[in-house]
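ARCHIVE CARD
Drawer: 12
Card no.: 0347
Subject: one protein chain, sequence and derived structure
Cross-reference: see card 0346
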Amino acid sequence: MILDRQRLSKCFATENAQNGSMPDIRLIQTTVKLNDGNTSGESILTAHTHTAMWCKICGITSVADAKFAVDAGVDAIGLNFYANSARVVTPELAAVISTELFHYAPNCARIGLFVNHTESEVRAVLKVVPLDILQFHGAEPPEFCESFNVPFIKVLSMRQGIDFAALDKQYSAAWALLLDTYHPTQAGGTGETFDWQLWPRDSQTRLILAGGLTVENVANAIVQTSPYGVDVSGGVEDGVKGVKQQQLVRRFIKEAKNV
């Protein structure tokens, strides 16, 4: 497959969040065109420009949590389809959350998380669940990630000795790379940070920071790494995985966007 991406940007001024505490954010609409030489598909992705930190709340399991995250100022929510995750959602539930969220806040990106799923499994989800971005958290090769004609995020597990430059080049078609904590048996959701000294300093790719982020450390993490965005799941929960704590969500978004 040959990837031919045209990005057409349209910026729209938005109102401040209802509580008046969030910075003004501008939206960018990106058209991604994929051409395999015979047929072409087109996917339109709305995301925030970097006038404020891009924030994603992952592991959403209810419509109520999705709507509250939007009210708090989130830019994207994550729906987890990994069977071994405590935050897994069925395609049927995810479809309800995704559809309700689109009607409530069409500019909030709906991201589906997959871990070494087969092509047929991913396509089965896409038939049921409207998703703006796919997030691949396993050992998926670039050609697999690109095959769905949907913008994608590739997760990289950060540890000593990682050849980030090679992976950055290998996954050059990614909408963004998400840098998370390495764990030998667990795909994300570890609640642990990685050594931020490993953060790449010269990449031109959108880089999203994840791994052990909390209300207490997110501002410092942003100062140390200067990412495009941040991704949190367990850091905004209070004991029950998959159930977001509203005060923590609100505080996390405020801390991240006010750095």
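Annotation on reverse: The longest helix spans residues 91-104. Residues 1-50 have pLDDT under 50 and may be disordered.
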